[in-house]
């Protein structure tokens, strides 16, 4: 079989032949060197449940994986803010001071902004939700 090659090569063990062949590197998604951030105006929400009341004042900055996701959220900002506001208003005022609540809020914001905005067919790719304000009274 070696005689079909353009030039004659001395016979090599199979392991040595594999070592000389280039190894295919799996493709990795390209991450932008410049982060893509969008700051949202703060939200003020009154949390009421079972006669217990708190006021939550919270602001976010969203970090996007791609420019198109940021542009979609910007284009549909009233709907995005509405989704976040509805999610924040469902929080329990009795557990708002718990240590894990900020992480739950961050995941909830990512979750409610993930679905596509009608009539857009694309979902948003948000890599992080950062707090810029977090006040509970």
UniProtKB/TrEMBL annotation:
Q: InterPro entries given for it?
A: FliL
Q: What does this protein do?
A: Controls the rotational direction of flagella during chemotaxis.
Please indicate if the UniProt record lists Cell membrane as a keyword.
Answer: yes
Q: Which family does it belong to?
A: Belongs to the FliL family.
- Keywords in alphabetical order, please: Cell inner membrane, Cell membrane, Chemotaxis, Flagellar rotation, Membrane, Transmembrane, Transmembrane helix
GO biological process per UniProt: bacterial-type flagellum-dependent swarming motility; chemotaxis
Instruction: Tell me the protein's name.
Output: Flagellar protein FliL
| Entry membrane topology | Single-pass membrane protein
Q: Where does the record say this protein resides?
A: Cell inner membrane; Cell membrane
Cleaved signal peptide residues: none
State the GO CC annotations.
bacterial-type flagellum basal body; plasma membrane
């Amino acid at each position: 079989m070696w005689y079909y090659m353009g030039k004659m090569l001395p016979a090599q063990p199979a392991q040595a032949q594999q070592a000389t062949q280039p190894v295919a590197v799996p493709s990795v998604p390209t991450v932008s060197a410049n982060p893509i951030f969008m700051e949202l105006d703060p939200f003020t929400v009154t949390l009421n449940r079972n006669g217990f009341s708190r006021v939550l004042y919270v602001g976010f900055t969203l970090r996007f994986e791609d420019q198109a996701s940021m542009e979609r959220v910007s284009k549909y900002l009233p709907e995005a803010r509405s989704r976040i506001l509805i999610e924040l208003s469902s929080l329990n005022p009795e557990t708002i001071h718990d240590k894990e609540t900020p992480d739950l809020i961050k995941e909830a914001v990512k979750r409610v902004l993930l679905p596509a905005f009608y009539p857009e067919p694309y979902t948003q790719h948000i890599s992080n939700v950062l707090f810029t304000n977090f006040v509970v009274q």
